[in-house]
Here is the input.
Amino acid sequence: MLNTKEVDLVVVGGGPAGMAAAVAASEAGVEAIVLIERQARLGGILPQCIHNGFGLRFFKEELTGPEYAHRFMLELEKHPGIEVKTGTMVIKVTADRQVMTVSAAEGLVCYQARAVILAMGCRERPRGAINIPGTRPAGIYTAGSLQYLMNIEGFLPGRTAVILGSGDIGLIMARRLTLEGIQVKAVLELMPYSNGLNRNVVQCLEDFKIPLYLSHTVTAIHGQKRVEKVSVAPVGADLKPLVEKGFDLACDTLVLSVGLIPENELSLQAGVELDPATGGPVVDSFYHTTVEGIFACGNVAHVHDLVDDVSTESAIAGRAAAAYLRGEIRGTRWLPVKAGRNIRSVVPQRIVTGQATPLYIRARFPERDVLLQVGRGRSRRRIVSPGETIYYTVKPEEISETDGWIGVSLEGGEIDD
Here is the structure.
């Protein structure tokens, strides 16, 4: 017989998002919370992020990834109403908030929850998703998997490396490889701008004199048992390689930092609507999805620059789930966000009227001296870039309900070459 347990709240994912959401919900009065994590320990990706730079916003001090995770683990211990289930895989979430799990310790268990928070995080885009031609030798890694191998397993991947993609993990791994004595020949970026934070470009590349080739990509991988070299070429305005202008870089390691994908298979199972721009669920100001009683936060909702933002956002979701269980946020009125000029994505995608809502906005391309327009609100920005979040809190008086939607756009800028 299936073991079924009734609980107030199930949080799927024990990374920074799930832990922050569970703690916030408990502090807001939710008594029976189950926090489910498929790995053997909590923390998500944080335990392998041994560099500092975490916590400056949320904890007001600089921490490493493991230290940041440990802070939340200590918070969890203060809340006996939170039951932590590690080594437990969620295999199904339904629209009526049934969460099916399996583990070696308990076998198959079904939790019937009054509310669910999805906090599964994201995964890396692999080589197969970008179709780099060539052989399949050893020495090809995604940036996150290499980070785990080096920082957790103590594995040295090679002696010379090329990194494809200038996302933050790729930039951080360029520095990490260099510090371990591995020569990083180059970081290649398909776009004409970096996709990482500017501080990481400076601290991880410029400080170590690692060359960054913008508008370049890998066109082929060479080697039999081991990577021997990669072919590199610039790309045109259509992002297609100009092979005739290409060159080779000798290396024994290729690191791929080519994007992150929110983990939303469970969300789709439950019937949650996804936003094509973010790859995550469509949410309102409370991070309530399109399915009643199911919330989403952290990198499963949209990929964040900073873990501090993940914690802040997830705390909102945790408190909102508590309010939902008290019957306080049901039937709220919201307006959809309409992305305008140079806007790639906006989260939340639905703004609840009558309250201030922090927005996470992404630009499509770099610009200088632009005017951010959100409803009736205005804010001058010196520079915007796709690699960095634009923050804006929209106030109730900046929303016109007669329009039926809220426009967000960047106007009057000069393209940043």
Remarks:
- The chain has a mean pLDDT of 95.
- The radius of gyration is 22 Å.
- The longest strand covers residues 107-118.
